Task: structure prediction
Amino acid sequence: MPAQLDMLDMLTPQAPASLAAQMPAPRPGALLIMSCSATKAPDSTTGDFHDLYTGPMWQQVNAAGIDRDRVACVSALYGFMEPDHPAIVQPYERKMDEESAAAICGTSNHVWRLAQCVLAHGSAYVVGGALYRRVAETAERLYPELAGRITYATGTYLEQRKQLGEWLRANA
Result:
């Protein structure tokens, strides 16, 4: 398991069996859950993942002006990061692989935190490839309260970019 995932797990309590046990405070607007980006700002010093990722889809999100408190991320290194994620995030080189996806989904509290965030916002839109999508799908399987609350961009990278643009125009 990547060391960063172990460190982040210490920041959040273990996941309870049910989401109803700790219902999150409501937050306005649907949540956008983005995959991380291979393109990163080399001089990112804020520690905020919103400033770290600079790929085309992240540029699209930033240009749309969506509130940062409605944008979460699944990172190959850091796992699920809520909009107000507390960790300092620095540039890194790691692609999402089966090992990272399995660690995020099965041996950490990242799926529970994603589920809490979706419930707080009421719904979520997930953009990313199959390994990123697996995190949200795992949350849906584990927490029936999420039924019908998560939708996904699908298809090729370009098709997902187009769908993201449509979602941003409707929700930003």
